[in-house]
Amino acid sequence: MKFKKLQAGNVIFRKEATKGNEHLPGICIQAHMDMVCSKNSDSTHNFLTDPIVPVIDGEFLKASGTTLGADDGIGVAACLALLEDNSLDHPLLECLITTNEETDMSGAENLPNDVLLSKILINVDSEEEDSICIGCAGGLERALRLKVKKEQPKESSSFFKVSLIGLLGGHSGAQIHEGLGNAIQLLARIMNPIAQEHQDIQLASFYGGTAINTIPRECFSIFGLPKAQVEEIKTKVLSSFDDIKKEYKLIEPNMQLLIENESSPQECCNHDSTKKILDFLSIIHHGVFRMSPSVPGLVETSNSLSIVSLEKEYFEAQLFARSSSNSQMKYVSEYFDALSRSYEIEIIGDRNGFPGKRLFIYFIWLNFLKNKNNKKGWDPEPSSFALSVIKKVHGEEYDNKTKVYAVHAGLECGLIKKQYPDMVFF
Predict the structure, then answer these.
(1) 243 assigned to active site
(2) CA 425 to CA 380: how far, in whole Å?
(3) CA 414, 317, 283, 254 torsion: positive or negative?
(4) What are the residues facing 346 on neighbouring strands?
(5) What is the C-alpha to C-alpha distance for residues 153 and 159, in angstroms, rounded to an integer?
(6) Cα–Cα–Cα angle for 279, 284, 285, nearest 5°?
């Protein structure tokens, strides 16, 4: 068996065909070695140095306070198991293990077009054993910045940390249609009416989300409230939370709202900026834009509000849109443009979001800070011979219950296919 480390950190293993199978088309099994590094706020886990702490929960293996890394650790394990099994008859076998799938897919994007010898690629980055994935959505990441004005905290205010915790979180592609709570938007929903009604509310901190491709499960904020109205405002906040908790009782049973005393900060947003931030979070679409008209149950287009943070001069929101339709992805990009126009912004530079000159019409501005080029989707090939063989084998293994599907999440096949257009993927 041969192996080689490629650029971008990718690794390829190659095992020659067993005797009598040399004439058969080679097969490449592809997985990614990285994971989503997300943890609860009270966890001290260091992903760079600490091992994952596994927990057995009935029939499931989970992690304690962090993500587990089964995506795509289980795929890597499958590759290694195939490589070490010398009892198998097989054609040329390659295993490609890529890097950075969970962030920018730079491993697949930087794969050279002359290293794979196989004619068929099987991506092992899906969840269901009895299912065959033959397509995926492309993706578009954007970071939006909203400029804010800061001022000194009011002497007539008391400051409180308001936290929304205990939500399930989830994958912002594969689970975007499940109705899971977005901690960022739910906390904004609770606090926005308060800020609109009470003129002396000041926002000192607001942050939530830990990874661009996950639904945020926690969000934290610090607000300054008029001392004379603290109890009235707390009652309204808790009442709003009770309404939300009833809405989500079946899918977010562990959701909690915490209100804790906080010391006065050095500075905070003025009232106008506070309202603008909460309005901004309230109008960003999180969830499904459109279901697929051709594949029942498949999300075609969605957007996720994934990460937010209040910095010294601006408020930043990171979004992740996905679609299997190029025209729908264009529509989502135009939706982002419409968000900028709603805040009275004229974008003079590159509409695709690279830094350019801006005309500031209002004291709050929206800046398309980051635009990662659209990641290509993976177009299904339902009539391929390789798929028919796989379906036959799967049918024998799973009593003809094999499901062929496409997924609303980013897989690396679209980028790899760009380098190997004649290869068959599934």
Answers:
(1) no
(2) 8
(3) positive
(4) 359
(5) 9
(6) 140
Q: Quick one: how far is CA 214 from the chain centroid?
A: 4
What does the pLDDT look like over 82-100, one tens digit per residue? 999 999 999 999 999 999 9
Instruction: Indicate the class that CATH gives domain 2-137+377-425.
Output: alpha beta
Specify the long-range contacts of residues 59-65, CB closer than 8 Å, at least 24 apart. Answer: 65/39, 65/40
Contact present, 143 and 178 (Cβ < 8 Å): no
Q: What is the pTM of this model?
A: 0.69
Going by C-alpha positions, the residue among 418, 413, 330, 366 that lies closest to residue 132 is: 413
Cα–Cα distance measured from residue 104 to residue 326, given in angstroms and rounded to the nearest whole number: 19
CATH architecture classification, 140-375: 2-Layer Sandwich (3.30)
Lowest mean pLDDT among 24-28, 215-219, 328-332: 328-332
Residue indicated by tokens 């070490």: 84
Residue 93: exposure state from Cβ atoms within 10 A (0-12, 13-18, ≥19): buried
Pinpoint the residues of the chain covered by CATH 3.40.630.10.
2-137+377-425
Long-range contacts of 113-116, Cβ-Cβ distance < 8 Å, separation of 24 or more: 113/419, 113/420, 115/4, 115/6, 115/12, 116/12, 116/28, 116/420, 116/423
Q: What are phi and psi of 263, to 5 degrees?
A: -70, 160
344 included as an active-site residue: no
Among candidate residues 34, 94, 109, 125, the one labeled active-site is 34
Report the chain's mean pLDDT, rounded to a whole number.
Answer: 87
Domain with CATH 3.30.70.360 in the chain: 140-375
* Residue 87 identity: S
**In this structure, are residues 166 and 404 in contact, taking their beta carbons and an 8 Å threshold?**
no
Of the listed 71, 94, 101, 412, which one is catalytic?
101
